[in-house]
User: Which sequence fits this backbone?
């Protein structure tokens, strides 16, 4: 059994690493705060001038945000928004209804929590620690409810609009579970195919 557990863990890790790479290469809008000049992006060279907006891969945008020369236009997912998502998910816990999430929702939250930990390290205030705990509680609530809903849908036809409301992380989980279950059912002749 340990070899099966290791193989399943490896598959999950590989899929999450690929998603993280996609997340980092996803384009985000930035507002340029200072003249930066020319930078290299996958499409070639762009010149970033103060007061303009550009779409850049997230990893490049984050480097520039860290230097204080651009700011992300999309902003963060705040605690208020997370609380609303958690409330809506809890109120539809027994129904196959999903709140629409950002494409890389869980990775965005991981980044928010990482930034809070960095602030906590620098400022050491109880308010920041409280925010970290709230983020972690909300993401736990949201994630567990949504995974439970996805698992409940594995043997039935999912709602038509389900995939438009799932994060990329949830889509890959659903597809993996659906394919593993289909293979298992067919291999053991539980389902014809």
Assistant:
């Amino acid at each position: 059994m340990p070899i099966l557990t290791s193989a399943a863990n490896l598959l999950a890790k590989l899929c999450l690493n690929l998603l993280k790479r996609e997340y980092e290469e996803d384009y985000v809008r930035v507002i340029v705060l200072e003249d930066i000049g020319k930078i290299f992006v996958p499409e070639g060279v762009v010149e970033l001038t103060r007061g303009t907006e550009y779409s850049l891969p997230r990893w490049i945008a984050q480097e520039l945000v860290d230097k204080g020369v651009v700011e992300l236009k999309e902003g963060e997912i705040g605690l208020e928004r997370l609380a609303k998502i958690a409330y809506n998910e809890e109120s539809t816990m027994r129904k196959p209804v999903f709140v629409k999430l950002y494409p890389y929702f869980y990775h965005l939250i991981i980044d928010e929590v990482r930034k809070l930990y960095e602030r906590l390290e620098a400022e050491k205030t109880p308010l920041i620690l409280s925010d970290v705990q709230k983020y972690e509680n909300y993401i736990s609530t949201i994630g567990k409810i949504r995974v439970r809903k996805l698992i409940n849908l594995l043997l039935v036809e999912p709602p038509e609009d389900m995939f438009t409301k799932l994060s990329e992380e949830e889509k890959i989980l659903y597809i993996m579970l659906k394919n593993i279950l289909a293979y298992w059912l067919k291999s053991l002749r539980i389902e014809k195919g």
